[in-house]
Amino acid sequence: MSLSRKQMLDEMGLSPQWTLRDQPAVVCGEASARGITSAASPAPRPTPSVETQDSFVESAPERAQHIAGLGWDQLRQSIAECRACGLCAQRKQTVPGVGDERADWLFIGEGPGAEEDARGEPFVGVAGKLLDAMLAAIELKRGENVYIANAVKCRPPGNRTPEAAEMAACAPYLKRQIALIAPRLIVLLGRAAVHALLGEVGSLASLRGKPLAYRDGKNEIPVIVTYHPAYLLRTLSDKAKAWEDLCRARALMRQISRVQAASPG
Ligand code: URA
Description:
The protein is α/β, with parallel strands linked by helices.
């Protein structure tokens, strides 16, 4: 599927806010990643040389260690039975994540809302429709080389932002998902996702466009930070910025793929 620039903007609902004539000079496919490592990088998956934050707030070390050893089936089972924080009390079901379990792309949101809680799948409500359009804008599709997860796997009551302790309790699950998927690139949707994965490292606005990475053992996985789809539904004027971020993500993925294709082994 090859979309024209206009089609991509239409997919994201950007055309009315941001005409092609006025758009900023971010061009999809242009190299926007800084400091890509050479083909001689010792890491199995070449990644940019970037600031790395490994600041998951660990919950009980033994529990985290146990979760770190689980395979997909055991992980889903463990999430389904989890009672590590108060969010379990009101959930209809847990929402572990959806998609290709060896995807190159990992998108991380905040936590399930009412519809996700009812259906057991992330991003199936209105924000999910926008996320699907954002994926389509960069020629991605839910389930195809894409995995979608959340910082917390249970619905925060009233769709409030998950508390730091709740995200910390869920962190071993997210961490294990990342290790199992081994994505080439992680896109963080909104502040809670940033907080869950990178810690309190700054405002979302200050992190957009910065070279960031999440360290999983020896691997550094590049991270792109952008706005949460629910926020974009309320703040149409920031959709253009999200579009820039997606362009950056796509350019970065292309660079990573090129570097990896060129690297021996
Ligand atoms: N918002 C999120 O962050 N995640 C979902 O799954 C749905 C809405």
